[in-house]
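re: ur msg from earlier - yeah i can do the LLP complex, just paste it... oh wait u already did. ok heres what im feeding in:
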Amino acid sequence: PSHLGIKNGRLHIGGHDCTALAAAYGTPLYVTDLDRIAGNFRRFRAALAAHYPETQVLFAAKANGNLTVIRTLAAEGAGADVFSSGELELALRAGMKPERLLFNGSSKSPADLALAVETGVRLSVDSIEELRQLNAVAAEAGRTAAIAFRVNPALEVPTHPKIATGLKTSKFGIPAEEIVAAYAEALAAEHIEPVGIHCHIGSQILEVEPFARAAGVMVRVAREITDIGVNLEFIDIGGGLGIPYHHDTDPAPTPEEYAAAVMPVFLQGIRECGIDPALWVEPGRWLVGDSSVLLVGVNSVKRAHRTFVNVDAGFNLLVRPAMYDSYHEVVVADRADAAADGTYTVAGPICETGDLLAQDRELPAPKAGDTIAVLDAGAYGFAMSSQYNSRPRCAEVAVRGGKHAIMRRAERLDDLTATMETPDWTA
Ligand code: LLP
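and the outut:
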């Protein structure tokens, strides 16, 4: 990727020397290139808008919940797919317009529904029971809620089973055969206005064909519900386009290839229906995944069954390798163009065997004090971090042009206990 490079033997991100950033801010440290995010967004939107100008890109805020990141996307004109009241608040604070937000989720609480109604965002409704609850909440508030239903497209997709969301057996969405009845009920509900349809088939998908199939399901549903009188304002085909975590070998489709597969199906479908709804898409990973590196410091190296490079962050700060067996490239940032001299396993500090960030990689001998960069950590990286083993979370630094600055301070030891209470009868 063009925002990463090697200068004077050191890894740079957005023109900034990773070794120097690690020295200035300390490790572990997330570093995010905001220009890369803006560039990714522009490219993704342009690829679709070239086929159909009425395309709206909603950032899947679960991928990266940093306010500066969301503001950067808001400034580019992005909306957001929000999956909780917290993500909704973040998107609004980042300056996104309510009409560009979709409140998703298969298990919304009464408070979530009330906040959605109050802020006037559209909702993706995941069940008939939720529809009835929402109608009651909207009635109470004297409002009308604009909704889509989440359709379960019953599609097998080539990705890790934990992140394939459109399977018939997954917890998400309403089966396609029940969808017409759901819209009929929504049309009849006094405080509901059905305006969209929504699906999401899964994440980190490295083929375009499943997206085209999903678009096919969506336009079929669009036709059926248009026939019963739904006035479709948008069709949201979700996110899920994968990125090449294996830089040299993953066959990652480009947004242009994605658009070329999806748009003919979408355009022909809406033409046949005689409607012109906006197309909404919800990429998360593609917009932010490659924008960040996680810089970790080497504490020690141990030659055992394998050679372990013990670093100062593990699945507390990047859970993807432990949770999904995900692959992330690692680079010894201080000697980024040195020849590899052996095979190393990068191990985190958490007291679990599975706490390995990278296994059996060819690297130039890492040593204590080195900085190692874990690449493509911008999506579901910090967002899924925890304080497990009572480790305060690290800082996040933004870079843009010649500038760098903290966009989230590191937690301190005091932050670990800040929300705890000690009732006087307990000790
Ligand atoms: N829309 C909906 C309704 C979603 O559930 C998701 C992701 C997205 C959009 C964005 O998908 P993306 O474009 O980022 O693939 N933690 C996992 C990924 C979980 C994805 C959950 N849903 C990982 O680290 O791979």
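cool cool. The chain has twelve helices and 21 strands. ping me if u need the other ligands too
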